[in-house]
UniProtKB/TrEMBL annotation, chain A:
Annotated organism of origin: Youxingia wuxianensis
Flavoprotein in keyword set: no
GO MF term list: iron-sulfur cluster binding; metal ion binding
A matching Pfam family: 2Fe-2S_thioredx
Annotated InterPro entries: Thioredoxin-like_sf
Keyword annotations of the record: Iron, Iron-sulfur, Metal-binding
Record protein name field: (2Fe-2S) ferredoxin domain-containing protein
Automatic annotation (TrEMBL), chain B:
SMART domains: NADH_4Fe-4S
Family recorded in the similarity comment: Belongs to the complex I 51 kDa subunit family.
SUPFAM superfamilies from the UniProt entry: 4Fe-4S ferredoxins, Nqo1 FMN-binding domain-like, Nqo1 middle domain-like, Nqo1C-terminal domain-like, Thioredoxin-like
GO molecular function: 4 iron, 4 sulfur cluster binding; FMN binding; metal ion binding; NADH dehydrogenase (ubiquinone) activity
Residue stretches making up the 4Fe-4S ferredoxin-type domain: 538-567, 568-595
The protein's name in its UniProt record: NADH-quinone oxidoreductase subunit NuoF
Length: 123, 595
């Protein structure tokens, strides 16, 4: 470490890893259904894809977490995105590839991907 | 990238209740579930709620699991970490209200606390310098080295109103300005981590949970007074703290944050550890420095003060662990931020180690000016078993007791001294109606007699005589004249002892005499111990009306002092009774009493 600037650069880099330990009440929450039905339908790789993509893009205001079964097992893997002050968006039959697209379009740019939501699936 | 962090307390309290095995269990179960890439397990410092250890916190949910056993880990991994279902039965009950999980910061234990010195304890991994850096670690040092002159640092500290947290309460900025003003070719910075008061463990927790904060502050002190060498004097009885300090010093050196040419500014500073062998007197500053020099730990008269002639005869700044832990925050957030907390003459926060007859045994950090009642009844959760509060002892063997009538006093340096106690390093022992105040005074005097270094007569002989008088009173052989004699002896010791420890040694006696003189009189005149503690003044008797003659007491009496026929009232032979109380504990009918 040769200068204060170097120290500050290191701080900014390692800070990313600590984000989930702070108060996250204002964050966008990505909730992946990880009950038996979700896991059987392939929710694990979906969860990992969200975690990795969110980290890769440095989205500090996003918390990726998991939940139990919400009762629509035929649509698993189900992912809900909750943003403070906005209506909840429910994505169904997710895959890791779709997850990456959701991160890019929805989380990073605010465009809901209607074609993957439960509304589109039940039509 | 990890999506979840599992924080396991690695403080001394939780380590002794098995947190190391919990970490092992997590690593095994996570591996089994294939989650090692997603979930990170971190060993942290103390969370403060030691009574509920071992403690585990899972983020991002912030779930606070208490009293976790290694057998519970599988459930946490499979339910919470894999499926996202919080294991409610293991949550700290205070965080569950009407089946809803609330934030830890809203619980009674945490909501009145304000963490400055403990800000990183239980939050970061103390064995990883990167986590300290992530939370602005070494930024204060960087700011001081690049933007501030030594006089700026001193002014900031003076403006902040920070006073020494070791007990004396001397203004830190003033102390540093004296050391800076002394001219010499070599100066030193020392840290007093020889926490010796019975029941105090604040400094241990800071060293275990956030060792870099102390290192950073000592470097700032070095820059300010013009020293390039520091010593941390830490008790050998704190093996975890010693290990983490060694790791922290090693990592700081490796990263160029300690040693030569720090942050490319040309400033050199290095640190060494010195382990104390457990003598109480080595917590006294002059004795501590004598011990670092390699001599027997004995105090020497002041003046000259350490700022003029300290370690190896050179100007030295010596502060306590908690004082140092505040300093990086003051530099970064400013003097105004710090002085906005607290009372007029005592700024900031103070860490207390809560112990004794209280629900939430543990570590709390409160703004100065919080009342004793808030600390005991709200944060501490009150006194167990519906007993009544009698007194709180602050300042350990140098302090005094605070009776119930002063419970609403705002805690700060000056208020505590005004009522005959002192802040001390921060031990706070709560006593209820079952504690005998004469016995408490005797306990502390026994400690002082044991720990007196013997250099000066008032302490060596005076405390011994004082102890003998107390012993006489607890045995029912005291007289009213003894009380006056004790008081006189107390003042004599206070005025004539060489060091702070001797001068304050009579405080437990003086303050109990002041507030609980009636208990002393009961021992001396009535030959009774009202709390039922002093064995020589007790008799166990059986109530003939309540006794059913079940013979349980007689079977359990180790001295065969209880006689009686089956189904007829029993009697205790007082000449044989050793007053162990076993009969009273066993009696199912409440027929045995102390009189």
């Amino acid at each position: 470490m040769k200068s204060l600037a170097e120290l500050q650069a290191l701080r900014d880099q390692v800070k990313n890893n600590m984000g989930i330990r702070s108060d996250d009440s204002g964050n966008i929450r990505v909730v992946v259904g990880m009950a038996t039905c979700g896991i059987a339908a392939g929710a694990r790789p979906v969860l990992s894809a969200f975690t990795e993509e969110v980290a890769k893009r440095g989205l500090h205001n996003v918390t990726v977490t998991q939940t139990g079964c919400i009762g629509i097992c035929q649509y698993e893997p189900v992912v809900e995105i909750m943003e403070p002050g906005k209506e909840k968006v429910t994505y169904v039959k997710m895959t890791p590839e779709k997850a990456v697209q959701v991160v890019v379009n929805h989380l990073a740019n605010g465009n809901v991907m209607n074609e993957y939501t439960i509304g589109a699936a039940t039509k | 990238m990890y999506r979840s962090h599992v924080l396991v307390c690695g403080g001394t309290g939780c380590t002794s209740s098995g947190s190391a095995r919990i970490i092992e269990a997590f690593e095994k179960e996570l591996d089994h579930a294939g989650l090692t890439e997603e979930v990170k397990v971190i060993k942290t410092g103390c969370f403060g709620l030691c009574a509920l250890g071992p403690v585990v916190i899972v983020y991002p949910e912030g779930s606070f699991y208490s009293r976790v056993a290694p057998e519970d880990v599988q459930e946490i991994v499979e339910e919470h970490l894999l499926k996202g279902r919080i294991v409610k039965r293991l949550l700290y009950t205070e965080t569950v209200v009407e089946d809803q999980v609330k934030s830890l910061n809203d619980t009674d234990f945490y909501k009145k606390q304000h963490r400055v010195a403990l800000r990183n304890c239980g939050v970061i991994n103390p064995e990883d310098i990167n986590e300290y850096i992530a939370y602005d670690g070494y930024q204060a040092l960087g700011k001081v080295l690049t933007e501030m002159t030594p006089d700026d640092v001193i002014k900031t500290l003076k403006d902040s109103g920070l006073r020494g947290r070791g007990g004396g309460g001397f203004p830190t900025g003033l102390k540093w300005s004296f050391a800076k003003a002394s001219v010499d070719d070599q100066k030193y910075v020392c840290c007093n981590a020889d926490e010796g008061d019975p029941g105090a463990f604040m400094d241990r927790s800071v060293l275990e949970g956030d060792p870099h904060a102390v290192i950073e502050a000592m470097e700032i002190a070095g820059y300010t007074i013009g020293a390039n060498q520091g010593y941390i004097y830490v008790r050998a009885e704190y093996p975890i703290a010693v290990k983490r300090l060694e790791i922290a010093i090693g990592q700081a050196r490796e990263m160029g944050l300690l040693g030569k040419d720090i942050l490319g500014t040309g400033f050199d500073f290095d640190l060494e550890l010195r382990l104390g062998a457990g003598a109480f007197v080595c917590g006294e500053e002059t004795a501590l420095m004598t011990s670092i020099e390699g001599h027997r730990g004995e105090p020497r008269p002041r003046p000259p003060f350490p700022a003029v002639k300290g370690l190896f005869g050179k100007p030295t700044v010596l502060n306590n662990v908690e004082t140092y832990a505040n300093i990086p925050q003051i530099i970064l957030k400013g003097a105004d931020w710090f002085s906005s907390m607290g009372t007029e003459k005592s700024k900031g926060t103070k860490v207390f180690a809560l112990g004794g007859k209280i629900h939430n045994t543990g570590l709390v950090e409160i703004p100065m000016g919080t009342t004793l009642r808030e600390v005991i009844e709200e944060i501490g959760g009150g006194i167990p078993n519906g007993k009544k509060f009698k007194a709180a002892q602050t300042g350990g063997p140098s302090g005094g007791c605070i009776p119930a009538e002063h419970m609403d006093i705002e805690i700060d340096y000056d208020n505590l001294i005004a009522i005959g106690s002192m802040m001390g390093s921060g031990g706070l022992i709560v006593m209820d109606e079952d504690n005998c105040m004469v016995d408490i005074a005797k306990f502390f005097l026994e400690f002082t007699v044991d720990e007196s270094c013997g250099k000066c007569t008032p302490c060596r002989i005076g405390t011994k005589r004082l102890y003998e008088l107390l012993d006489k009173i607890t045995k029912g052989k005291g007289t009213l004249e003894d009380l006056d004699k004790m008081e006189e002896l107390c003042y004599y010791i206070k005025e004539n002892a060489l060091c702070g420890l001797g001068q304050t040694a009579p405080n437990p006696v003086l303050s109990t005499l002041r507030y609980f003189r009636d208990e002393y009189v009961a021992h001396v005149v009535d030959k009774k111990c009202p709390a039922g503690v002093c064995k020589a003044l007790l008799n166990f008797v059986i109530d003939r009306d309540k006794c059913r003659g079940c013979t349980l007491c007689a079977k359990n009496c180790p001295a065969d002092a209880i006689v009686g026929e089956v189904k007829k009232p029993h009697v205790i032979d007082t000449s044989k009774c050793i007053k162990c109380g076993a009969c009273m504990e066993k009696c199912k009918f409440g027929a045995i009493m102390k009189k």
